Amino acid sequence: MHDDAFKALEHLAATDVGRGSAVLARHAQGGLHDAARSLCRSMETAHVLLLTGFYLPLADPPTAETDGPLGAVMLARAVELLGGIATIVTDEPCQRVVQAAAVAARLS
């Protein structure tokens, strides 16, 4: 049952929305379950580094993307809840978005 769930998650993640994600996902296909298992096994001693930030200078108004910073914060919160340590690194234009999300998520 877990294998089917991980295959479904990989399929969803590989759904191309115009950014070439399907091509990238082929190289990681079948690895999500092993990666999750490895992370869970080492969580109490894990220090996870999350990188995010994609500034959109031509947007009206110019802004930080919304899914990457929020996703990084949610992953960091999950890592903390499981006993690990998470560090988020972002670029300067996205820093305020990441900080606001981290406060809302009650990251330590």
Task: Describe the 3D structure.
This protein has 108 residues and is an alpha+beta fold. It contains five helices and four strands; from the N terminus they run αααβββαβα. The strands form two sheets. Strands 1-4 form a two-stranded parallel ribbon. α4 packs across α5. The termini are far apart.
Notable characteristics:
two-stranded parallel sheet, alpha+beta, flat, two-stranded antiparallel ribbon, 5 helices
Strand count, sense and barrel status of the largest sheet are: 2 strands, parallel
Biggest sheet, strands in spatial order?
1-4
The coarse overall form would be flat
Count the DSSP helices. 5
How many angstroms separate the termini? Answer: 34 Å
Can you give the helix content as a percent range? 40-55%
Rounded Rg: 16 Å
Mean pLDDT: 86
> Which blocks of ≥5 consecutive residues have pLDDT under 50?
none
Q: How many DSSP-defined strands? A: 4
Order of helices and strands: HHHEEEHEH
Question: What structural class results from the helix and strand content?
Answer: alpha+beta
Strand content: 5-15%
